[in-house]
Amino acid sequence: MAVDHTRFLADLHKLREFGASGVGKGVVRPAYSQADIAARQWLAGRMAEAGLTPHFDPVGNLFGLAEGQSLLMGSHSDSQPEGGWLDGALGVIAALEIARSSDRPVSAVSFQDEEGRFGVTTGSAVWSGGLPLEQADALTDAAGISFGAARSTMGQLSQGFIDAVRFNGFVEMHIEQGPALDAAGEQIGVVSDIVGIRDMRITFEGQQNHAGTTPMHLRRDAFQTLSLFNARLNDRFRNVVRPQTVWTIGHVDLHPNAASIVPGRVRFSMQWRDGDTDRLARMEEIIRTTAQEVADEQGMGLGFGPMLGLEPVAMDPALRQALERGAEQTAPGKWRNMPSGALHDATNVSRLMPVAMLFVPSINGISHDFAEDTAEEDLIAGLNVLYHAVQSLDWRA
Ligand code: GLV
Ligand code: MN
Ligand code: MN
Q1: What angle do CA 65, 70, 76 make, to 5 degrees?
Q2: Which of 52, 141, 250, 253 is most buried by a 10 A CB count?
């Protein structure tokens, strides 16, 4: 076999030096941070050494282009604020290794801001036409910095947007980020479909006041309102959700966040995911009416930010079959078909071309945490599946 496992693992470990957290193998490499840009510049050099032409587009997506028509492979190299070393990085380095070892034309990509510092998979959303650039530029991160300002820090590297017609399809390898494969002792997941997501910010506005003198019945307390909203929402969702449905309040900005002040304002993220678009819409309705009801009861003002979202998508049958053949060859009896509960750039890329995805296990199902990891033999098994799949593709199809 032509893939070089040692070179693949060495590059994967090299990438985690950019933004190394010092805690386990974790990384802090949010989109457009110094560590993220330095990592992209290193990747561009590795792509050039592999015979690919590096190309940064206006939002900082990095492509390593093969000549002529090619299969696009990759993922993202930005991380969560407390990220694991494999989330995204695995797919990018695997793409690089396949591009330099396969005799088939393969291009590699690292999309920008997959982790949603600004939006939801922002770089691939813009490239695929799912999110207009002007709209993306107006998005802000938790500190109020705009996407437009952040991407301008990579302006000196920027060339035009790549025309997607040069790619026949897209294959993304990723860690599972959940417990299924690890718990079953399996090595490979071939993805059937990726769930849909909705994400928005909600604000409750009350009255900031003294925590010692303000009687309880006169308070318009933002924390108490959020707490009530959350409890009521969980109750209201019970008749609508199914076991696979998830919802998260992951970022809370309580103002002014001081022990002796009744908090006057809370701004928080509300995110929900499911494979069924109708269910996502029913949940949105419940979120909006519950928030309004709680705000009215508590005498609070209420504001909804713009709602971002991605629809559920199914993987392309032909590419998926190629991955299944590779899985059966590499890990007979130790692979399965499975949906993805995590979001991926492949969702956006599916607007432009056929897409497929491959998973390897996450130890204890942990991800979006410094502790995220995968056994080395599973990383290598995934790479081998990719290699077999690419070699087996019918390029005339
Ligand atoms: C991507 O990291 C996601 O939130 O699923
Ligand atoms: Mn990822
Ligand atoms: Mn992630």
Answers
A1: 55
A2: 52
